[in-house]
Amino acid sequence: MWFSNYKLLEKKKLTNDVYEMIFSDWNKTSNKPGQFMTFMLPKTWFGRAYSICETSNDKYIFIIKRVENGRWWSIEITDLEIWSELKAVWPSGHFILKENNKAKIFFATWVGLAPLYNQLQSIYDSWLKYKTKLIFWLKNKEDLFYIDKFEKLKEKIDFEYKIYLSKENDVNFEYWHITNFITKENIDWFEEFYICWNNMMMDECISKLENLWFSRENIHNEKF
Ligand SMILES: Cc1cc2nc3c(=O)[nH]c(=O)nc-3n(C[C@H](O)[C@H](O)[C@H](O)COP(=O)(O)OP(=O)(O)OC[C@H]3O[C@@H](n4cnc5c(N)ncnc54)[C@H](O)[C@@H]3O)c2cc1C
User: What CATH topology corresponds to 3-92?
Assistant: First the structure.
């Protein structure tokens, strides 16, 4: 296991509880699309994993949600001052974009978008031309972020996206949960599935896909 120090260069509040945090990668550790890094708590040395959302010129960009009723790490990391330095394990994990030409669909809820966006970024950077689609779930319109980035993806790759809001009914968005999207007609075009979020949502997605005869080997998932 390899550790390095990473310095917090920028921090931006994207919504009420989601922060974009940019750390230096001066050691030039490289990542595969979809991997995470494990940051160590400065005092206790407990680790917490955060998926790399984007990479840019020796920087790693993360999107981190403050979980108010958790064990405090998400609060501690989002409270960090600029120029703070954290020790982290180099990028690791097996939730990696497959190198093939299969049409891919990505199911993300909230900051579960991070590894999927990193995978879409790698498709964008390599000009790959197969069909891609993102299904993104949030609660309300005020929780939305990165729409400008989704629009940019459309300029270069075969990409579409659909947003589901579960607590707000608005004509411009789909209502309720992204698992509603999983019907034979909607997913017939796609050959590979990438899903990221919690156990419950993941299990529901996977069982719906399997009921539609999608083979488990084409369903890739990361649980937060
Ligand atoms: C591989 C991997 C990648 C991850 N990548 C990210 C990431 O890119 N961004 C990110 O914000 N978190 C990510 N997480 C979650 C992160 O590691 C922490 O669990 C999270 O920040 C909460 O830590 P905590 O100590 O505040 O609360 P904890 O005590 O760890 O968690 C409290 C409760 O909140 C749930 N929870 C965990 N993460 C979230 C979340 N994001 N939103 C709502 N509920 C949550 C937990 O399941 C638990 O029930 C990732 C986890 C894993 C395993």
Answer: Elongation Factor Tu (Ef-tu); domain 3 (2.40.30)
Q: Which residues, 6+ apart, have CB-to-CB distance to 43 below 8 Å?
A: none
Q: pLDDT tens across 36-86, in order?
A: 999 997 766 778 999 999 998 899 999 999 998 878 889 999 999 999 999
Tell me the whole-structure pTM to 2 decimals: 0.95
- CATH entry 3.40.50.80 includes domain 104-223: yes
Q: Which long-range contacts (CB under 8 A, 24 or more apart) does 95-100 make?
A: 95/34, 95/35, 95/194, 95/196, 95/220, 95/221, 95/222, 96/32, 96/33, 96/34, 96/35, 97/32, 97/33, 97/34, 97/122, 97/123, 97/194, 98/192, 98/220, 100/192
The full set of domain ranges for the chain reads 3-92, 104-223
Q: Which residues contact 179 (CB under 8 A, 6 or more apart)?
A: 201, 204, 205, 208
Alpha carbon of 63 to ligand 1 centroid (Å)? 11
Please tell me the distance between residue 129's alpha carbon and the centre of ligand 1 in angstroms. 33
Residues 40 and 86: beta-carbon distance below 8 Å: yes
Ligand 1 and 46: CB distance under 6 A: no
Instruction: Identify the helix (H) or strand (E) that includes residue 24.
Output: strand 18-24
* Kind plus residue range of the DSSP H or E element containing 211: helix 199-211
